[in-house]
Design goal:
The protein is an alpha/beta fold. The protein has one domain. A three-stranded parallel sheet has the order 1-2-3, with helices on both faces. Helix 1 links the parallel strand 1 and strand 2. It starts with a strand and ends in a 15-residue tail after the last helix.
Length: about 90
């Protein structure tokens, strides 16, 4: 499993990272999680996830793609081949 989670330092993002890691381990698989946020979260960075610094607000053009490239660079096994961006209408 290879995923990129934004807002990963706290709240739902952190819970998502921990759940993905736990589920992957329970299934006998490893998880490669790129945890993106402004600051790292204690206990989340390695071995659960690789922290990737947030490169800016996702509302700015180009930031989601730049974040995906940073994640692919820092978190071994993460690939930025498919990027889906959900924007409010």
């Amino acid at each position: 499993m290879r995923v990129l989670v934004t807002g990963a330092a706290s709240g739902i993002g952190r819970a998502t990272c921990l759940r993905l890691a736990r589920d992957a381990k329970a299934q006998g698989h490893g998880a490669r999680i790129a945890a993106v946020d402004l600051t790292p979260s204690p206990g989340l960075d390695s071995p659960v996830a690789t922290w990737v610094p947030d490169v800016g607000p996702f509302a700015d053009t180009g930031v989601p793609a730049s974040t995906a490239v940073a994640a692919a660079t820092r978190a071994s096994g993460i690939k930025s081949s498919r990027i889906f961006i959900a924007s409010p209408p």
